[in-house]
Amino acid sequence: MPTTTRNGQESAANKAIGGIPVLHYFDFQSKGRGQTVRLMWEDAGIAYDDVRYSFDEYPQAKRDKLSKMNPTTNIPIVELGERILTQSYAMLRHFARLLNGYDGKNEEEKYFVDLITDIVIDWRTKFVTAYLSDNAKEDYPRHQETDRKRYLKAVEQHLNSHSAAQAGSFVVGNTFTYGDIVLYQLLHDESLTKDGRQGLKEYPRLAKLVDATEDRPNIKAFLQSDRYKG
Fold this sequence. Notes:
Shape: globular
Oligomer: single chain
Number of helices: 10
């Protein structure tokens, strides 16, 4: 049976989004696309129910319940009142609008947040393909030396060259956005946020973003709590 846990206490942010959301996702530590949604909720102080499926439970749940909630059967899926929300990046943008935050302040900043997010989508696809490959012992190290280095270099260059990014630690300076969340989560999943940021020593701007993200009060509290699974 999947496990269900209530996290946090209902807040004004819950009222802003329309209630207490229920997240359906893999029991995959604190990793993956579903974790980006959790991280936004943690930062915003949103109470939520966390339904976790083991990889063994997922096929049956997909047949019995999840296929009725999402025609593609993909997770994460969010229940919010009478609504069913799917597609993690669409969810993040949706909640950003409901919360009147987590995005750029003008069209140029919004474009740049989308640009970084789209790079992350491409990068994550390469990462997951290699990490979950049947030949992962060879494919993932090859990814680390090829695609990962290419994307790290590209994002570092973007952050160093865009005027909004130069104004602070995040993708658009001092404004924390969903672009920071998806970028941070991928760096985390690639194990680049650990071991004193050794994997980011050649990418100081990315290391600065990681430090600033983990220093946000609610995210810091989350990372130090038992809700954080590694």
